[in-house]
Amino acid sequence: MYEVEVKVRADHRLVRQRLAELGAERTERVSQTDVYYDAPHREFAETDEALRIRREGGPDDGDAEADDEPTETRLTYKGPLVERASKTREEHETPVDDSTALEGVLDGLGFEPAATVEKERERYGLDGYTVTLDSVVGLGEFVEVEREAEEDGIESAREGAYEVLRDLGLDPADQIRTSYLGLLLADDGDASQ
Amino acid sequence: MYEVEVKVRADHRLVRQRLAELGAERTERVSQTDVYYDAPHREFAETDEALRIRREGGPDDGDAEADDEPTETRLTYKGPLVERASKTREEHETPVDDSTALEGVLDGLGFEPAATVEKERERYGLDGYTVTLDSVVGLGEFVEVEREAEEDGIESAREGAYEVLRDLGLDPADQIRTSYLGLLLADDGDASQ
User: Fold this and answer.
1) Which residues in chain A are closer than 8 Å to B49, comparing Cβ atoms?
2) How far B102 CA sits from the closest chain A CA (Å)?
3) pLDDT of B62-89, one tens digit each?
4) Which of A42, A44, A55, A92 is most worth mutating to test chain B (most B CB atoms within 10 A of its CB)?
5) Which candidate, A17, A19, B36, B156, has a CA 20 to 30 Å from the CA of A113?
């Protein structure tokens, strides 16, 4: 299975209105803080790999109680593209109990925190696609439309994603192919927001 | 707190008899499989570090049902000695949900399995000490006596551990300071057993 994903900048207020009009249901709302690491033996920017600790918790809505909600920590490795057309990567991810100990392991081995991506994320279901509204600190608001597809269904899944974007009042031609990490590093973190 | 630990080779059948006579209770019985990794950027044998995935499950007693028991996986990093006298090390350890994904992360980063230490481990409590009976594949049977101590209590804790060994019919002079991994690597895995 391949992940077909289209991302554009978008004003969340307008997109939420359209989602409500289309009867889309919100399925999830979380805060994610991703710390990307540099390796002591490779230049990940050159090898096109990534090592990340993601902490995910309840939405950061100023509710002090919600801030006490348990956070899940996951360790993720993304390898270089194995197939360029579908953007398929080797990826390994596991939940980890003790995020402080995990930081200690990486630090001991010589890996260093290089960049942090913080976002509020809302997910909706619409026409078989997942619509994700990401509000990324330092970058602004984005909408991603994604679906899994078999190899021979990639093109039609992509066309369908464009259709969903248009239904939301967005333009597929605005597609951004760079990751949030890439955008942050390119901007040195002082982009719009 | 420091870990004071004394280890000797010992015939478990005789030690279990002594433990029963002394009224010691068995507190735990587990199987542990430890995979130690080589790093792509350092020679751990020279830097005196270790990176390990430990899988711990129920005892391997030929009971097919017990083999289905859930296994806990932990990732551990041990740094070099920070204090030689007390053998204190920087150590970071966390439980991890998905051991296959964790192997994938380490493999992707260029770490390679270097050696495996498999053992059956029984723990008993005796006179404030933990007495551990380890049966290590490829090495044979060992007994460890250990206790935590404050810095100024290390010497008396060590004397007490020697006393416990004598109570068990063992000789503190037989103390082995090499880790199981070190013993296996030194023997190339063809030692007694």
Assistant:
1) 108
2) 6
3) 665 555 566 899 999 999 877 665 567 7
4) A92
5) B36
Q: Which two tokens stand for residue A36?
A: 């990307």
CA B82 to chain centre: 20
Which residue among A77, A98, A108 sits closest to B105, beta carbon to beta carbon? Answer: A77
Closest CA to B85 of B133, B152, B169: B152
Chain A residue at shortest CA distance from B97: A95
Instruction: Tell me how far apart the terminal alpha carbons of chain B are, to the nearest angstrom.
Output: 35
The CA distance from B30 to B22, in Å, is 22
Residue in this structure with the two tokens 């740094």, named with its chain if needed: B79
Would you call A75 and B102 a contact, using CB atoms and an 8 Å cutoff? yes
How many whole angstroms from its chain centre is CA A9? Answer: 13
pLDDT tens figures, A155-169: 899 999 999 999 999
Ordered by where they begin, the domains of chain A are 2-192 (2.40.320.10)
Chain B residues touching residue A40 (CB < 8 angstroms): 41
Please give the full DSSP string across B61-110, using - where no structure is assigned.
Answer: SS-TTGGGS--EEEEEEEEEEEETTTTEEEEEEEEES-HHHHHHHHHHHT
